[in-house]
Design goal:
single chain; 1153 residues; alpha/beta; Rossmann fold; 6 domains; six-stranded parallel sheet; 42 helices; 47% helix; 12% strand
Length: 1153
């Protein structure tokens, strides 16, 4: 196919082209440099692919083009797209769709050039230089290793935190040295209250981001006034901007301020009073900051909100309405003027005082110590031939700086193996300052219009990697100013190829109000760019599920599960995703979906060290077997489900003394074995019967494991001990087995000769161990499988339906760190601002307070961008969930640091207009049913009979669980199971009956019982039990029996003086303590006090009723008669006793004698 053929076909489809077609065509000009703002769904990856293909038609060698991305996944996708385009053009005919046709034609031209120049791109796709920024940094550092101090770069370590901590410790070891290092360390540690651990934590945290501050810290070390000069520049920049914003009303404001300052009482408002006689706006200098803040007080309240009234406190006396009216008009102007409020708030938080002498000394100490801290880290890296990504970036910066200052060729791109002529950068909004410096160094020798180009693509509205040092202000600055010698022409794409018209319109309406009104480089504020939908989908929708009540987690989990079930059933070919800000938002959702058999898949969601109790228990067992003195680990092992001692028995065991009378309270294994020996010799230790049984079961196992420790493979020894203790019987699901295997594999990798030589490294590795996803291999390619991931991980992806849970959840406010610092991105340069927290007896440092505000402001702005990224993943359906609160029948705004806060003003309008409904739950019944679920303890029954250990590693636990449940199918007259499982099921039944008694029978029709399964599953799962369908059916049947049985209804109907779960405290004559009894149900009927006790017991009706009654009376009469005696002490009424078995149903009266 010829190029003319391509043109003819392309022309025929002009009507199908997006509205920004001309912009996209302009961006392909290989002679110009561009920075392209590409909002979500605008096809930026496709644009980069087109640009790269165009450039391949211009260069002599493919290596003259460099495409930079920020992740390996993005680099692989880009390389795949280009290579696929070339393969398709080589083997397939031209496609009919306009975009596919365009790519095909460009690729076809590249193939012609490929053949003419013998590039062999189809056989050697690696000639296309598509790299991550870290990969390119490493390449640069290695390229110039011989002529700089930078050596060949080794492989990055995945245990960098260990090196950071060790470097901090090595530096702190110089505290006693009679050197400047020792002196400055003394200053630092004294300021931190002589807390060496806090100091070590501070220094190691700084090392993680040293590529940000290290290039700037040398300037601070050589200039004692550096930090004060930076603060002064920052203040001047903000004041100049505010002066510019206020210029239209400056003269009016000055006149009114002079009058107000004359009228105000100095004692009540000294800040405004000092402005008396003002004739012009104050100078934009720190010395005049107080005057600016005085001006602002006329506009804003103490809460930094617009004033609605003016009083004498602001200098507006009663009766002088003219001046007041004029000022209120200025306030109205400010409300309409973009960015005025934001800038006034920023100025109100600026540090008003110069850096204190104590702060100055501390900052100088840090400026001296931090480069030496980096030197300590480099020594550790060199010793182990390791590095980290920050070191790679710094090495590349050093290499480029050395070449730039060399007397030979200064153009770095001419010194590489191939001369770079074109550089493309994807996701440019996520660039850090260090990466920007590297890019500037690489192109420093370029000249405008010399045939070399820079092509930057990104979306500042999708910048959400501040925790990785990304600075969105760099993107804004690059749109306005050159990068080194290259000025990039700014382009903006407007077409959204992903989402339906309804979703695009919703995003435009909501986020145009949520984003700041104007761009601000220093604050990292980004204004919104609207999009236009290219395609439409029938039936697309945006829904908000609001809930007002006390049980939002259960409501949300149920609604999300119902949505997923409906979508998987009715739209099986459409993809579904649940996107969360934090993994903790899934605690109720995943169990609910499991209960409903919803297919789901998740990657790197749950860290096993914090969310998987079997792995946490296995880690405790490992630590215990490694050290007898690890008291916490041993207590955790004895308390773990596979042992199961209660707290009373643990106290008894750990209070035992040795036979010689010497306390061994710090060596629990000795106490355990001594207690076991004592029991074997008939001694009574004060343990409960269950505790005695557990001790006899676990002590021999732990003794054998302890005696043989470090004699065999550690992972095998830990697994063997865990199996013998019954660990496999405590696992609730197949995923638990997989997670245990993952832990044991990690343990095997880190153990050496039966021990762990580096516990710190091992702990870091465990912290990074994620849960295995469920086994969905049979449906791995099914679109209906619900994908679960964080919003950050979903960036760049799209799904037909997107569910966003818990948007009203606020982030936890962090404690005040000892040191705050920020790399400030200005209009033309970057600066480092640092401040330490004041000593406990000093006022808060104003610079520290400003940095605290700046961090909170940055987080708030990023929250808007995070929600924008989440919402724009949706193609056909967007579903938002949030908990709301009401006060005086008015909706209260969500927390300011929640994802819902940015869109709340618009959302509230839609709620008030009736577009979205909020579920108001005044009763919150489910909360009452689940409020005690967290009190249940997951453990093996003390009398469990474990199966013989298998020979193939971790056993399934099926036999063990069968032994627990075997009594359910027994042929005994009474089927009573005293296991933890049976007790948990009985507790569920008791709480349900209590709720029915409280609400009344009329509130509980039989169909309501079908809504309880989800809550029961969650309660039992939190107790460590995976409930079976049969058990749920038994619970349902028990309640149904009660509500349809005449005796059951009589028991639960509204009697006088009815009390459910009544606690009665009493004192025995021969006991100094207070005892408590809990009565299931007590009520008064025809002058008689009835006491009813429920039992989860079941019996086979093959036996006579008389024999069953006799056995029940014999077993429970003493307990019920005791309750009767307690009531007789309280009131003078006849008492009758009843026993009720809901599972049958069956009622008998227990005689008093």
């Amino acid at each position: 196919m010829t190029n003319s053929d391509c043109q003819t076909t392309e022309t025929s489809s002009m009507s199908d082209k997006p509205v920004d077609t001309k912009t996209r065509e302009t961006a392909l000009d290989p002679t110009q440099s561009f920075i392209v703002a590409a909002p979500a769904g605008s096809g930026k990856t496709g644009l980069i692919t087109e640009r790269l293909l165009c450039l391949l038609n211009e260069v002599d060698y493919p290596e003259e083009i460099l495409c930079i991305t920020f992740t390996r996944k993005a680099a692989a996708e880009m390389a795949s797209r280009v290579h696929s385009a070339l393969q398709h053009a080589h083997t397939e005919p031209c496609p009919l769709d306009p975009y596919g046709e365009k790519i095909w034609c460009l690729a076809r031209q590249v193939l012609v050039r490929n053949q003419a120049n013998n590039w062999s791109l189809l056989e050697l796709p690696g000639r296309l230089r598509i790299q991550t920024i870290d990969g390119f940094s490493r390449y640069i550092a290695n390229q110039f290793a011989l002529e700089t101090t930078v050596q060949q770069i080794p492989e990055p370590t995945d245990q960098a935190l260990v090196y950071y901590r060790n470097a901090a410790r090595n530096l702190l070891d110089h505290l006693e040295d009679d050197t400047p290092t020792g002196e400055y360390l003394g200053v630092l540690i004294a300021h931190m209250g002589n807390n060496m651990q806090s100091c070590e934590s501070l220094l190691s945290t700084l090392l993680e981001k040293r590529e940000q501050w290290l290039p700037l810290i040398f300037a601070a070390a050589d200039d004692h006034d550096y930090f004060q000069e930076v603060i002064d520049r920052l203040i001047a920049t903000r004041l100049e901007y505010l002066a510019k914003l206020l210029q239209p009303i400056a003269s009016e404001l000055i006149a009114i301020t002079d009058i107000a300052a004359t009228n105000v009482d100095y004692e009540k408002n000294p800040q405004l009073s000092t402005l008396q006689g003002i004739s012009e706006l104050p100078l934009a200098q720190r010395e005049h900051l107080a005057d600016w803040q005085g001006l602002i007080t006329q506009f804003l309240t103490k809460k930094l909100q617009w004033r609605s009234t003016l009083t004498a406190r602001e200098g507006f006396l009663t009766g002088r309405n003219e001046h007041k009216t004029r000022m209120l008009e200025l306030i109205s102007w400010g409300k309409q003027a973009p960015a005025v409020l934001d800038e006034m708030v920023q100025v109100s938080h600026l540090p008003h005082a110069p850096i204190a002498p104590t702060q100055q000394i501390l900052l100088e100490s840090l400026a001296y110590l931090l480069p030496r801290l980096v030197a300590e880290l480099n020594l550790l890296f060199d010793a182990d031939n390791k590095t980290d990504y920050a070191a790679i970036t710094l090495s590349a910066l050093e290499a480029t700086a050395s070449v730039e200052h060399a007397s030979t060729v200064s153009d770095i791109t001419l010194r590489l193996d191939y001369q770079l002529k074109h550089i493309l950068v994807d996701e440019f909004q996520d660039t850090s300052v260090a990466q920007m410096r590297l890019l500037q160094s690489v192109i420093s020798g370029w000249e405008p219009n010399d045939g070399r180009t820079l092509f930057l693509v990104g979306d500042s509205m999708q910048s959400l990697y501040s925790f990785r040092n990304a600075k969105v202000g760099l993107f804004i600055r690059a749109q306005q100013q050159p990068i080194g010698p290259i000025a990039c022409r700014a382009l903006t794409l407007n077409t959204n190829f992903r989402s339906s018209q309804i979703i695009v319109d919703w995003v435009n309406r909501y986020f145009s109000e949520a984003f700041p009104a104007v761009d601000d480089i220093g604050r990292g504020a980004v204004k919104y760019t609207s999009s236009e939908a290219f395609k439409k989908h029938d039936g697309a929708s945006v829904k908000f599920f609001g809930y007002c009540g006390e049980n939002f987690a259960s409501y949300e989990a149920r609604r999300i599960t119902e949505l997923c079930v409906d979508l998987q059933k009715n739209k099986p070919r459409e993809s579904i995703a649940i996107l969360v800000r934090s993994r903790t938002h899934l605690r109720a959702i995943i169990p609910a979906m499991d209960s409903a058999n919803v297919l789901w898949d998740a990657t790197d969601i749950d860290t096993l060290a914090t969310t998987c109790m079997p792995v946490i228990d296995m880690l405790s067992l490992t630590r215990a077997l490694m050290s007898a003195s690890d008291r916490t680990a041993w207590l955790a092992v004895l308390r773990a489900p596979f042992c199961g001692f209660d707290l009373g028995d643990l106290l008894t065991l750990t209070s035992q003394s040795s036979h010689e009378g010497v306390s061994n309270k710090h060596v629990i294994i000795d106490q355990l074995l001594q207690s076991f020996d004592a029991v074997q010799h008939g001694q009574v230790l004060g343990l409960t019967l269950a505790g005695m049984a557990i001790l006899k079961r676990v002590a021999p196992v732990l003794k054998a494991a302890w005696v043989t420790r470090m004699r065999t493979d550690l992972a095998a020894a830990v697994e063997h001990c865990w199996l013998q203790l019954g660990g496999s019987a405590t696992l609730a699901s197949e995923s638990d087995h997989k997670n245990i295997k993952r832990y044991l594999a990690l343990l095997s990798d880190h153990q050496v000769a039966g021990t762990i030589p580096d516990w710190e490294t091992f702990n870091v590795a465990v912290e990074k161990l994620y849960a295995a996803p469920p086994d969905i291999s049979s449906v791995a390619h099914s679109p209906a499988t619900v994908r679960i991931m964080t919003i950050h991980r979903a960036k760049g992806l799209e799904f037909d339906h997107v569910l966003l849970p818990n948007l009203s959840k606020s982030t936890r406010s962090s404690d005040k760190p000892l040191l705050r610092w920020q790399e400030y991105v200005g209009e033309s340069e970057n600066d480092l601002v640092m401040a330490t927290i004041s000593a406990y007896d000093d006022e808060e440092d104003s610079v520290y307070g400003y940095l605290q505000h700046a961090e909170a402001e940055s987080s708030r702005l990023e929250n808007t961008r995070v929600l924008y990224v989440a919402a724009t993943r949706a193609v056909k359906g967007l579903y938002l969930f949030g908990a709301l609160k009401q006060r005086s029948e008015k909706w209260q705004p969500p927390a300011t640091n929640s994802l819902l806060a940015p869109i709340w003003p618009t959302l509230q309008q839609d709620i008030d207009n009736g577009q979205y409904q909020v579920m108001v739950d005044a009763n919150s019944v489910e909360t009452l049913l689940t409020e005690q679920s967290d009190l249940a303890v997951r453990r093996l029954p003390h009398d469990i009979k474990l199966p013989a250990e298998g020979t193939g590693g971790i056993i399934t636990g099926g036999a063990a669980r069968a032994s627990i449940h075997s009594s359910t199918d027994s042929e005994d007259v009474l089927i009573e199971n005293d296991s933890a499982r049976a007790r948990a099921l009985g507790n569920i039944l008791h709480r349900a009956l209590k709720q029915i008694a409280k609400d009344g029978l009329s509130a509980w029709p039989l169909e309501r019982l079908t809504t309880l399964d989800c809550g029961w599953r969650n309660q039992l799962k939190e107790a460590g039990l995976l409930v079976t369908p049969r058990e749920l059916s038994d619970l349902q049947k028990a309640l149904c029996n009660t509500l349809t049985d005449s005796r059951g209804r009589w028991i639960l109907e509204g009697h006088r003086s009815m009390h459910a779960e009544l606690a009665i405290d009493y004192h025995l004559a021969d006991d100094n303590g207070i005892q408590r009894s809990i009565v299931d149900l007590a009520f008064e009927d025809q002058g008689t006090r009835w006491i009813i006790d429920y039992k989860y017991t079941y019996f086979n009706k093959t036996k006579s009723v008389e024999s069953i009654t006799q056995r029940l009376q014999h077993r429970y009469s003493q307990q019920l008669r005791h309750y009767a005696q307690l009531f007789e002490r309280i009131e003078n009424k006849p008492v009758r006793l009843g026993l009720y078995l809901p599972r049958i149903p069956f009622f008998i009266e227990i005689p008093r004698i």
